[in-house]
Amino acid sequence: MGIHTTEAIVLRRYPFRETSVTLTCLTDGFGKLKGLVKGLRAQPNRYRSAMEPLTINRIVFYDTRASQLHLISQCDLLAPLSALQRDLETMRLAAMCVELVDAVVPLEEPQPAIYRLLKQTLERLCLGGDSLLGVRVHFIARLLRLAGFQPQLDECTGCGNAVQAAGYWSARQGGLLCEACLHEDPRAEAATPPLLDALSAFSHSDQPVVVEEPLLSVLRGRLETFLRWRLERPLKTLTA
Question: Phi, psi (5° rounding) for residue 201?
């Protein structure tokens, strides 16, 4: 049984029996983990953070090896990120970020780049001043690329040939269709070069890029429709 110390962002928290809780955390060194904190509900002041969702903590956990549920024995609050609660839209976006990470990141696979993305995005939301729409589009596009979950944009999802010009965006097919394969999704919409260029810029950048608001709105719609088709379960925080 190994003992490990790591920085962790709490994604979800559930009651476990009468006195304990189970957590899903994204850690900087071990990827997404599930952990058990014994006695927390009986002693809520045992840890200053009480391991609340949307907090950054340093945790000590025991790797049980025989199970994917590990015992968390110590926790120190590093950042409460309380500024996320200053308005409803900011909090909704933060909640969407953690729910999307939980949906696309597998258990116990180190994902340091995704950890940095989530941490930096939550800290950016705490500071304020950025366009929430720009932060939203950047987070989704960047996360999908880092997780290997991004739309297929370099070749047709139907025939596999390189897409000439811009092609057509098909969330149902998982990327672009060429004109010859448009019958596979007659509702596919034209994907213009500016849209594809902006999507590429967001997915490769460590921070939101400057894009005009109408194009941002289109990008949000295309990405979120893609998520609805491709995720195994719908996101509660993904609004229309």
Answer: -65, -45
